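Task: sequence design from structure.
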């Protein structure tokens, strides 16, 4: 059994209000010098067999179909 990871992030041109709220709060918590935060999602998918190109392609199709809204989000797939 292998694990494939899908990281989903808002596209750079899409406003990220949650990330903005976090970056505004950080100085109050003593964290200075952070200029931007982008919030995202991580999915770990376990697949039968090796994390080969076929498994990665299956994860890409899953991400495109179900895990990411490709209008406003981009995703990366990699073996772990």
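Answer:
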């Amino acid at each position: 059994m292998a694990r494939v990871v899908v990281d989903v992030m808002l596209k750079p041109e899409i406003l990220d209000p949650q990330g903005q709220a976090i970056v505004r709060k950080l100085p109050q918590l003593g964290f200075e010098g952070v200029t931007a935060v982008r919030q995202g999602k991580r999915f770990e998918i376990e697949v039968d067999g090796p994390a080969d190109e076929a498994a990665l392609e299956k994860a890409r199709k899953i991400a495109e179909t179900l895990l990411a809204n490709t209008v406003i989000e981009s995703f990366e797939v990699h073996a772990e």
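The two ends are 11 Å apart (CA to CA).
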